[in-house]
């Protein structure tokens, strides 16, 4: 539950003032318990779930200690995926905007190396990145951590699960021996303890139970006997409930792609998210799911890390997670902000051990129920209400969301209500528009100009 006001924490006045303008009022539990310790300069091991406010906790801590006039890398935040790194960097920039000339640089795999090298030559205060790319820059001598004050490992359990232990060890060797280490993790496998012993000095351990109210989530368990039955069960659930936004969790990359392809072939607005996809595909998928032009995202646990989507209607566990904590983390993505969420898990007799483990963890008996009856309608799901249009121009062409909105609404061609989220990246702009006006919106840009220039545009989702 939320606790004290941010004014009770001895943060820099500029940070406090900015928090007030951002609407941050009360500290979450993880912030109240960890921030005073972080500000005191101590090492911290914190267990906290997604949505608990942990990003703001470590971000405010490293910003408080930052010496803005010292233009050297003073803080390094390591994340398991580019999606999470981008999300963290965005939050740090928001929290730092009242402190002038703070430079936050994101270094992740899957992005062109050239621009990163050029940015590193200009320097930065804070680096946010994935282990592999950070190690690469360190080995090539392009990145120096000689002035590092704060090292943050966000979602440390996932980095270990993805096989980054050796890479992390290499990065630690490039860090000064005297620094503050902040380790945040949703789960605590044994490797976490081993990792902390190598890099931390007398760490303070903080464990915060999930701040998510699981009473707002309806959990349903359905018995299945085969993979074919699992797919049929998913089809029946989607057909019956017609959720606007659903994540289906699978255990392997191959399985994730297969389920996505099968649903897509049946007309579902659906895409897969897993580590074998190119970074460009992953970025576009995340944008389309967040702007509601994709109804269903089929994902592995690792790929879905950092998923930031409002009002997620349903989570489907195609297979039970191997760890009960991961199960709770999965279902905690629905039913947020006071809305009613739904979590549906498919289980077979072969998963008896997982079921027993989950029962023990939840403190309740799990009983299965019949699947909802199949619909006689041939249509599995309604199409997504929005369609994403991709414009071949972005920040480098000086395009801004206001330019795009202005072009669509000029002369009342479209209403502002017809336009959803507008995401501007370095070289592309993604615009969600209502399906009914998608073709009209396409013609407005194709036949017109933005900033006096013509840009190509296409539909990214059908």
Automatic annotation (TrEMBL):
<keyword id="KW-0378">Hydrolase</keyword>
<dbReference type="Pfam" id="PF00271">
    <property type="entry name" value="Helicase_C"/>
</dbReference>
<dbReference type="InterPro" id="IPR001650">
    <property type="entry name" value="Helicase_C-like"/>
</dbReference>
<dbReference type="GO" id="GO:0004386">
    <property type="term" value="F:helicase activity"/>
</dbReference>
<dbReference type="InterPro" id="IPR027417">
    <property type="entry name" value="P-loop_NTPase"/>
</dbReference>
<feature type="domain" description="Helicase ATP-binding">
    <location>
        <begin position="35"/>
        <end position="206"/>
    </location>
</feature>
<keyword id="KW-0347">Helicase</keyword>
<dbReference type="InterPro" id="IPR014014">
    <property type="entry name" value="RNA_helicase_DEAD_Q_motif"/>
</dbReference>
<protein>
    <submittedName>
        <fullName>ATP-dependent RNA helicase</fullName>
    </submittedName>
</protein>
<dbReference type="InterPro" id="IPR044742">
    <property type="entry name" value="DEAD/DEAH_RhlB"/>
</dbReference>
<dbReference type="InterPro" id="IPR050079">
    <property type="entry name" value="DEAD_box_RNA_helicase"/>
</dbReference>
<keyword id="KW-0547">Nucleotide-binding</keyword>
<dbReference type="InterPro" id="IPR014001">
    <property type="entry name" value="Helicase_ATP-bd"/>
</dbReference>
<dbReference type="InterPro" id="IPR000629">
    <property type="entry name" value="RNA-helicase_DEAD-box_CS"/>
</dbReference>
<dbReference type="Pfam" id="PF03880">
    <property type="entry name" value="DbpA"/>
</dbReference>
<dbReference type="InterPro" id="IPR012677">
    <property type="entry name" value="Nucleotide-bd_a/b_plait_sf"/>
</dbReference>
<dbReference type="Pfam" id="PF00270">
    <property type="entry name" value="DEAD"/>
</dbReference>
<feature type="short sequence motif" description="Q motif">
    <location>
        <begin position="4"/>
        <end position="32"/>
    </location>
</feature>
<dbReference type="InterPro" id="IPR011545">
    <property type="entry name" value="DEAD/DEAH_box_helicase_dom"/>
</dbReference>
<feature type="domain" description="DEAD-box RNA helicase Q">
    <location>
        <begin position="4"/>
        <end position="32"/>
    </location>
</feature>
<feature type="domain" description="Helicase C-terminal">
    <location>
        <begin position="216"/>
        <end position="379"/>
    </location>
</feature>
<comment type="similarity">
    <text>Belongs to the DEAD box helicase family.</text>
</comment>
<keyword id="KW-0067">ATP-binding</keyword>
<dbReference type="InterPro" id="IPR005580">
    <property type="entry name" value="DbpA/CsdA_RNA-bd_dom"/>
</dbReference>
């Amino acid at each position: 539950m939320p606790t004290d006001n941010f004014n009770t924490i001895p943060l820099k006045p500029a940070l406090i003032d900015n928090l007030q303008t951002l609407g941050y009022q009360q500290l979450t539990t993880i912030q109240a318990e960890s921030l005073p310790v972080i500000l005191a300069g101590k090492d911290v091991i914190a267990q906290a779930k997604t949505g608990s406010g942990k990003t703001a906790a470590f971000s405010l801590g490293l910003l408080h200690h930052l010496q803005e006039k010292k233009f050297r890398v003073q803080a390094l935040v390591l994340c398991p995926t580019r999606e999470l790194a981008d999300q963290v960097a965005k939050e740090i920039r928001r929290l730092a905007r009242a402190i002038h000339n703070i430079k936050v640089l994101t270094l992740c795999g899957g992005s062109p190396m050239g621009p990163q090298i050029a940015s590193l030559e200009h320097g930065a205060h804070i680096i946010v990145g994935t282990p592999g790319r950070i190690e690469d820059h360190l080995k090539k001598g392009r990145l120096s951590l000689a002035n590092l004050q704060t090292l943050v490992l966000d979602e440390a359990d996932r980095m270990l699960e993805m096989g980054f232990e050796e890479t992390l060890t290499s990065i630690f060797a490039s860090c000064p021996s005297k620094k503050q280490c902040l380790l945040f993790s949703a789960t605590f496998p044994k490797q976490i303890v081993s990792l902390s012993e190598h890099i931390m000095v007398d760490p303070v351990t903080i464990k915060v139970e999930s701040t998510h109210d699981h009473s707002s989530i309806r959990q349903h368990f359905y018995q299945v006997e085969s993979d074919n039955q699992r797919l049929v069960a998913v089809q029946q659930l989607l057909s019956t409930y017609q959720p606007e936004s659903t994540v289906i969790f699978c255990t392997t990359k191959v399985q994730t792609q297969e389920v996505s392809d099968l649903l897509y072939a049946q007309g579902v607005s659906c895409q897969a998210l897993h580590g074998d996809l190119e970074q460009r595909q992953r970025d576009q998928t995340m944008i389309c799911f967040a702007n509601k032009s994709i109804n269903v995202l089929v994902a592995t646990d690792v790929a879905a890390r950092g998923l930031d989507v409002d009002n997620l209607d349903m989570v489907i566990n195609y297979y039970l997670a191997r760890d009960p904590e991961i199960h709770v983390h999965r279902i905690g993505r629905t039913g947020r902000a006071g809305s009613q969420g739904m979590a549906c898990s498919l289980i077979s007799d072969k998963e008896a051990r997982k079921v027993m483990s989950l029962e023990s963890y939840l403190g309740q008996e799990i009983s299965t129920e019949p699947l909802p009856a199949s619909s006689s309608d041939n249509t599995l799901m309604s199409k997504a209400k929005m369609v994403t249009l991709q414009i071949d121009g972005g920040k480098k062409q000086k395009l801004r969301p206001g330019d795009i909105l202005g072009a669509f609404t000029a002369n009342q061609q479209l209403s502002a209500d017809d336009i959803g989220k507008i995401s501007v990246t370095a070289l592309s702009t993604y615009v969600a528009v209502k399906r009914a006006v998608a073709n009209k919106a396409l013609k407005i840009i194709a036949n017109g100009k933005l900033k006096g220039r013509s840009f190509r545009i296409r539909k990214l989702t059908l």
